[in-house]
């Protein structure tokens, strides 16, 4: 699997440092609240489990799964809700944890859903932000890394459901796509 990687963008050490930095800020910002931390499956699972360990606050967690990609490298434009939350969000302070914000469609969909359900506040923490990919307006409050317009895999992010278990974020060799 590691042989398929052209270059490492963010190493394990880079990611750990970003989690520390964000965790410290989130600890300060949420010290008087008990937020509901929502992990957007599947891509954010590694990031969420790491960053919450750097947050010294009371919080509850839940998971939601949405899909816009259908396994490839280009967004399909339509968001589907694959798995809903178990928690009632009415009146809750929500921290959405995302792997990457690209077109912004997923985030817009989730924010609209949470607003419809009367969340008290909604903030967004993303490991990566790809501002060059925006199609709809969407803004993250906490960002690990601003990434160039490349398709990235690893540390939760996939290509055709693989590479999620890489401990770092990298770019695949072109041959991985062309061999298909
Ligand atoms: P949108 O376009 O809705 O995208 O902002 C958000 C979701 O799209 C996926 N995504 C990627 N997945 N490498 C991936 O493995 C990428 O470079 C990439 N860009 C977007 C991701 O699931 C994210 O939650
Ligand atoms: Mg995702």
From TrEMBL:
Its main location: cytoplasm. The keyword Nucleotide-binding applies. It holds the Pfam family Pribosyltran. Residues 11-159 form the Phosphoribosyltransferase domain. InterPro entries: HGPRT, Hxn_phspho_trans, PRTase-like, PRTase_dom. Its EC number is 2.4.2.8. Purine salvage pathway enzyme that catalyzes the transfer of the ribosyl-5-phosphate group from 5-phospho-alpha-D-ribose 1-diphosphate (PRPP) to the N9 position of the 6-oxopurines hypoxanthine and guanine to form the corresponding ribonucleotides IMP (inosine 5'-monophosphate) and GMP (guanosine 5'-monophosphate), with the release of PPi. This is Hypoxanthine phosphoribosyltransferase. The lineage of its organism: Bacteria, Bacillati, Bacillota, Bacilli, Lactobacillales. The gene is hpt.
């Amino acid at each position: 699997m590691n042989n398929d990687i052209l270059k490492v963008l963010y190493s394990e050490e880079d990611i750990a440092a970003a989690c520390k930095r964000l965790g410290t800020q989130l600890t300060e910002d949420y010290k008087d609240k008990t937020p509901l931390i929502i992990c957007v499956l599947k891509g954010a699972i590694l990031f969420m489990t790491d960053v919450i360990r750097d947050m010294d606050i009371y919080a509850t967690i839940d998971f939601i799964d949405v899909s816009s990609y259908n396994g490839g490298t280009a967004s399909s434009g339509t968001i589907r809700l694959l798995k809903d939350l178990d928690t009632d969000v009415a009146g809750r302070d929500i921290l959405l944890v995302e792997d990457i914000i690209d077109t912004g469609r997923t985030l817009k969909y989730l924010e609209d859903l949470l607003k419809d359900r009367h969340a008290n506040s909604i903030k967004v923490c993303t490991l990566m932000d790809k501002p060059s990919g925006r199609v709809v307006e969407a803004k993250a409050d906490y960002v690990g890394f601003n990434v160039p317009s490349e398709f990235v895999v690893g540390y939760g992010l996939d290509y055709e459901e693989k590479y999620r278990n890489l401990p770092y974020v990298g770019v695949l060799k072109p041959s991985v796509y062309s061999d298909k």
